[in-house]
Amino acid sequence: MMRLFLEATIKIAILIGGLMTAAAYLVLLERRVAAWVQDRRGPNRVGIPLTKISLFGLGQPLADGLKFIFKEEYTPAHVDRWLYTLAPLSILAAALATFAVIPFGSVIPPIGEGGPIPLVVAPGVDVGMVYVFALSSMAVYGVILGGWASNNKYSFLGGLRSSAQLIAYEIPLSLGILGVVLASGSLRLDTIIDQQAATGVWNILVQPLGFVVFMIAAFAESARLPFDLPEAEQELIGGYHTEYSGMRLLLYLIAEFLHMVTAAFLIAILFLGGWHLWGLTGSGDEITLFTAVLRIVVLTVKVLATIFFMMMVRWSWPRFRFDQLMSLAWKVMLPLGLVNLVAMAFVVEYRQWFAGTGTWAAVALGWVVLIGSSVGMALLAPLSSDNRPRSASEGAARQQIFS
Amino acid sequence: MIAPLFAADVASQSPSWVASHAQQIQIALGALLAALALWLILPRASQRGRILGGVLGIVSLGLFAAQFPRLGDWLDDSMFVVLATLTVLAAAAAMTFRNPVYCAIWFALALLGTAGLFFFQGAQFLGVATVVVYAGAILVTFLFVLMLANPKGEAYYDRVSWEAWISAPAAAVMVAVLTVSLSQNVAAAPPAPQSQADLDRNILAPQHMAHLGKHLFSEYLIAVEVAGTLLLVGLVGAVAIVAADKELPGRAGATPASFTTDLGESGAGGRHA
Questions:
Q1: A103 shares a domain with A203
Q2: What mean pLDDT comes out for the span A267-284?
């Protein structure tokens, strides 16, 4: 009991320390990537304080943090005081609590008596994936409460947009996950990694369509561009956190980056094999300390690569319009997710055909399904970016509505 | 240990009638106090007596809680007490606040407490399902509607609870009946030391979800199918209502007319945004 408690406490301390630092440095990374994409220099001056040493701007997050701490904690007079304070707290708490079931490595060899120590805060949670869902749906509260409590039209619109968007994209998100769950037969993230490591076949190879659906839905859930309608600066000033400043704004920003980290972890774990890399990390729990560290490094590299990809996407695509966003969720992602689910059910049902060298057949099937359904979807073209009226009567009807 | 509530020997007025019926008296008193407390703390026309109602409510809860045996070691007990207190207080607050948004938030907290209790009992799936379904989906939709509608609730009938004099005694009686039946069951059949195999199979199954799924889709298949059909009917109905309402010519996905005008009227910034 005492040992369990101690283990959990140490893991929580490592995780929260690591996540907070990571969030701070991801801000720096994002700014540097943005500068790189836009052919600027970005923040590169701040280094060690009181000296002239500038370590590529590595001191910038510290300076930003200090700035936020010393800023005035201003509460506008027109806000709903309690909910205004509660909203950023709840979103950060939910974002941090998600990591209770997300493994940040494999296991480390036993210390003292007892078995290998799994590198996840709550190792016994058999509903891991659903737990992640539960907490990501709790994140909506922070956004809509912040938007409502701010008592500001722009904030309110941001909150409403966000709740509609998050609820809509939870469906493709779960459809993308269902394929993985079907393949591995468990909702536990560590079991999902173990299964991929044991067979050596990452889920992205067999179900690339599920990967695409899940990744797009994860982008939308973490409200990153091209899905950042809740806080669209050009339309809503800042969306639900327009009225926030100081530490409370910082809580929102950290929570946003943590959502991105969560999404990256889930993509890496569910589809990119977690800590597994062919010929390097092996599989199973009987490992040396070196392999354990190697696995942590592999997982971290995968997560960072995914985050880097998300940042590149942010500076490469324009934002969706709201009707396009909803059409994408309901008319494109939902059918594609169902197609992927049916294909995976086929593979799992006739798994004797796909054993051994038949794995290549499963992989081929997955890619055929991806290409076929994408082409089919493109031909159907449910997404129309042209919103001009198609006929005179439609134009007149719209004129009536919007005048 | 605990005599039935309406024992036949009430008529035999022995001198120690009060002592021999302490249990029943406690429960009856608890129910009475609970009804009074609920009536006092529910939002009525006047604010008077709310503090008294809160005190009475705590006393009655204490009377009910005294009927239950302790769970075991102090860690279990304190975990349970913390979670249960959180749930009950949040539920009481959800009933008594006047601002519907606050009510929804307190209700969400009550749901989180319930989920915590489920987790505490080892029912992992029920715990997360409570959060996903109720707190994550249904309550967010509630909030959505509440915020789109006039959130302040200026009208008198929005700010008071209706028929408080019926609902408060009804709730009190329900709590009393549940307490009696639960405490009797617990007292009559103290949890037998289950064999480790039973525990492994039923609760501590490492494949908790697979176990649950197997039961759901074999023993309770018809119930699952019926529930699924019901949900599908609801979905089709919603789509039918939306489709019938839509007069806007053009393609699907455009903003329905009613939505836009609603936003404009409620002052949430439809036109100028």
A1: yes
A2: 83
